Amino acid sequence: MKNALGAVDTVLLLGGRSEIGLEIVRLLVGLGASRIVLAMREPGGPPPAVTPNVERPAGAAPPEVHVLPFDALDAASHGEVFDKAVELVGDLDVVISAFGVLGSQDAYDTDPAAAMTDVAVNYGAHVSAGLHAARVLRRQGHGTLVVLSSVAGARVRRANFVYGSAKAGLDGFAQGLGDALHGTGARVLIVRPGFVIGRMTEGLTPAPLSSTPRQVALATVRALREGRASVWVPPALGPAFGLMRLLPRALWRRMPR
Length: 257
Hints:
By secondary structure, this protein is an alpha/beta fold. It has helices at residues 19-30, 78-89, 105-110, 112-140, 161-181, 213-226, 237-244, 249-252; strands at residues 10-14, 35-40, 64-69, 94-97, 143-148, 186-193, 230-233.
């Protein structure tokens, strides 16, 4: 439940080692969040640090951090993860769905089974987790599911069409889920970053209008506080992809790999 000042108090991060997800959590902790659940694969060892980069509100105690095992491909266990998180911290103010893999189109071309597995992580697992999140948030009557989508799904490019198609499906699912939750007090925030310079894209050449995990997190938290349904990071990508959707397919397929 939100604290006395109306700020986010409890957060569940699915993908507890996600750079973007952790940056969002750190910002929320800096704004007063006090109970955090990090759900991650193989959670052995100390949990990732969620210490904020800004001073917490006066008198605020250090946040309590819980770690739960989370396997994106084990859909049968997803409900238990949510139930356990609620048992640990109570109502969930924000659920961040931040897990995923980038993969390589060249590798997928030679290993379709790997492509199928990664699509299951990047799309199917988010459907399962999102529906469980909706169940909990609808029951509470409040809370926001943050879905990390991507501009890769806005119009799928040949250079990464397996990854892009999964993100396109995820974006569509998140839009539909947001509509389904309308009027319940719960909502969905879709975050559409462009190329993010970080661990997942290490070794790749940054694309125009790139951002960092912290920049994505700042935009996400701002959109949360404003009650928005979606946010492009950086904002210029929104109108840019509005135009790119209009390009004839013959031109679009010439986009550099």
